[in-house]
């Protein structure tokens, strides 16, 4: 995973993975890298739960979206971690474009590769 852009943050909890980047292109590139790593380890993602490079996603029951369209991602700072501090489930959190991947063992995407997806 050393090829991840420096503006990307990957957060994993159990079988749920959140990939966030400063731009949609960074997020897409990082999401593809993460999905390829998962595929090499024989993991796949649930197509029904996948949220691919979107500005608003739900992760662990929390709605995560940009604070404003130009919300800056600051490399080396905990923008994502601050956004995930405990609050009420369903209360908005803030970060850049994101992908949410729910991993399955049996097996992740219209830009997706078939070897990533568990239908």
TrEMBL record:
Superkingdom as given in the UniProt entry: Eukaryota
Matching Pfam families: RVT_1 (PF00078)
GO MF entries: RNA-DNA hybrid ribonuclease activity
EC number of this enzyme: 3.1.26.4
Cited InterPro entries: DNA/RNA_pol_sf, Rev_trsase/Diguanyl_cyclase, RT_dom, Viral_Replic_Matur_Polypro
Domain Reverse transcriptase: 1-64
EC primary class: hydrolase
Family: Belongs to the beta type-B retroviral polymerase family. HERV class-II K(HML-2) pol subfamily.
Name recorded for this polypeptide: ribonuclease H
Taxonomic placement: Eukaryota, Metazoa, Chordata, Craniata, Vertebrata
